[in-house]
Specification:
Two copies of one chain form a homodimer.
Chain A: H1 5-18, E1 23-26, H2 29-36, E2 43-48, E3 52-57, H3 61-68, E4 73-77, H4 81-88, E5 97-101, H5 107-115, E6 121-125, H6 128-133, H7 138-161, H8 168-181, E7 192-195, E8 216-221, E9 224-225, E10 228-229, E11 232-238, H9 243-262, H10 269-282, E12 294-296, E13 303-307, E14 320-323, E15 326-329, E16 333-336, E17 339-344, E18 347-350, E19 360-361
Parallel strand pairs in A: 1-5, 3-4, 5-6, 11-19
Antiparallel strand pairs in A: 1-2, 2-3, 7-8, 8-11, 9-10, 12-13, 14-17, 15-16, 17-18
């Protein structure tokens, strides 16, 4: 299979050698998918230098065989994934010191390692797979681009079918059906459709509120293709925009443009965040931009790297990140414009193309 | 607020006394919502005998104030929820021994407790809140019933708009838009729309496959109202059913009916599972029913109790559980019929009403 799984597994095994680990127990579903191709919700993977095991349950028997192929030995366990692990692990050769994913293993399961798994030595690890995932390969980038194309087609359809008088829930329904129609195999996260004062809540959920003349309408959503997410936000206005709405929107648009132009691999997440935040502060809206500028997208909608005031780490080459400045005025409303940007070796490239002007809805 | 949060918090505090804990750090989002009403995705709650703290981030500032009200003191933390915890915890009176949720705290965060939180004694706990959540109060039951009504309205609409030649993705789009139209404030889980041989995979995701004459069509989905989930499955046939399809469907329907009639509070999860499994085995299909009979639903779509071969625990009074027997024949197809059942003091009551016969799609 030319999808990079063998290369990823080899790179991981090299890293295990450096870390003096004989194997890694992978419990994050996104990490399992990245390494094995398995897309189900319930699985653990044990990656050793010689042997690889993927343990899942009955519901996924057919799917796991098809998705995983030769990349790992699939074990179907009818009661608990842990029973499968303890049954098959002793036969794995030369496995004595085993890493586990500290950010993805709950305390209860960590206790299992110490008790039922006491014949092995367990070592906490962080970011062994996530670090690899930060740099997207060509196949991954193609999936993200297709997820962006899906989202943009769906947003266009939605814009054509949205009118004053519809509820946020109805607009969300139109958007989500259009995403399916465009071929999205899921939703990257729960859609945000926020009208009027609701748009001042950055993570509002759609409700029964009706779109009224003069409302801002913030739509933040994403498609999923081959497991990979897009994440796009646009803010519209119902009817004619007020001067204040035009002003706030323009500040956000300029902040977005500056950050999209300035961001690049090798820069710290803090410096990237500064590109937009500095401008918004200079324009006097700094108090109303309380969240971070962006985050990586991939198999998860929030993944490394972070573009934030507290992010010291450097942005990796071939990461795909969101750039999503916003201004939120309590009671009044909010504006956010979010694009997805690929940090290539030869500069950054904005992948989203949907117009960024303040479009009015009739 | 007459929504039971104060009663829930009092009951939890009584339990903390029994467990000799001065406070509990609640990190499961569903448990936070149950106790505080906060519906955002990022929060921690510290429940002490005197004081209650809810820590969330900037994105949820307005929402948290509105949802939580007087039930807890809301702290908005701009960088990490943990910074908020360490900043405010020292001022909490008489808090020395603190429980944490072993099933919801990842190892990395557990290490924070031992390091940054070393001035307190930390004790792992399990099911302190989940145990309470198993018994639904009147308000919760009303939400679940409304989520079921939403799902049934959406399924009826979808059935009227589905025809041979549509793809699984298109059908999912119709279903999800109808859910929004019916007032669902989200999806209980990723919808399953599986046609033909795909229906043999209990957790299939909708794809580009077209509905063809003679296909089984399995639809498993749920609405969400006030945070509470419904979970419903019906299996249809495209055109006229074959004898084999009719036979398999009838066995599943009878198994569902027997379990719905026989299940009650006080029974073990194993005995409940047996009600359907025994019948399916007697009819010779035992090998093709590989998953459990059901699970509790509430703020999460999978919660306590379990109805399964390995479930020793007794089903609590006022739990709401799914009853979802299925028969899956690889390559050929699968049938599942799933209802939601309330285990009341005066017997069980099936809450779902959508017809269970094998309906043909034209």
């Amino acid at each position: 299979m030319p999808d990079g799984r063998e290369r990823r597994l080899s790179a991981l095994c090299e890293r295990l050698t450096v870390e003096q680990l004989d194997a890694l127990l992978v419990s994050s579903p996104a990490n399992v998918r990245y390494l094995s191709g398995f897309s189900g919700s319930s699985a653990m993977m044990l990656v050793g230098q010689q042997d690889r095991l993927l343990i899942t349950d009955y519901r996924y028997a057919t799917q796991a065989a098809g998705e995983v192929g030769d990349v790992a030995r699939v074990v179907i366990e009818s009661t608990s994934l842990w029973d499968g692990l303890w049954a098959h692990m002793p036969a794995m050769s030369a496995v004595r010191v085993v890493g586990f994913e500290s950010a993805h293993m709950v305390h209860r399961d960590f206790q299992r390692l110490l008790e039922a798994g006491s014949r092995w030595q367990w070592r906490p690890t962080t970011n062994l797979v996530e670090g690899q995932r930060e740099r997207k390969d060509a196949g991954e980038l193609a999936c993200i681009k297709e997820a962006i194309a899906c989202a943009e087609r769906a947003l266009e359809v939605t814009l054509g079918r949205t009118s004053i008088g519809m509820t946020e829930l109805e607009i969300a329904g139109v958007l989500e059906a259009a995403l399916r129609q465009a071929g999205s195999d899921g939703f990257a996260f729960p859609s945000i459709v926020a009208s009027g004062p609701n748009s001042a809540r950055p993570h509002a959920r759609p409700g029964e509120r009706t779109l009224e003349p003069g409302d801002l309408l913030l739509i933040d959503f994403g498609a999923r293709v081959g497991g990979y997410c897009s994440d796009v936000t646009r803010t519209f206005v119902a009817g004619a925009a007020s001067d204040r709405q035009r002003e706030v929107h323009e500040v956000v648009r300029m902040a977005n443009e500056r950050a999209c132009r300035g961001v690049r691999a090798g820069m710290s997440g803090r410096d990237a965040d500064r590109l937009a935040r500095g401008y918004i502060e200079d324009r006097g809206f700094g108090d109303w931009f309380g969240h971070s500028l962006g985050h990586g997208i991939g198999l998860e909608v929030h993944e490394a790297p972070r573009l934030a005031r507290t992010a010291d780490a450097f942005l990796a080459t071939d990461a795909v990140v969101t750039v999503e400045p916003g201004i939120y005025v309590p009671e009044w409303g909010g504006v956010r414009i979010e694009d997805d940007v690929h940090l290539g070796t030869d500069g950054a490239r904005v992948l989203t193309q949907f117009p960024r002007e303040l479009i009015g809805i009739g």
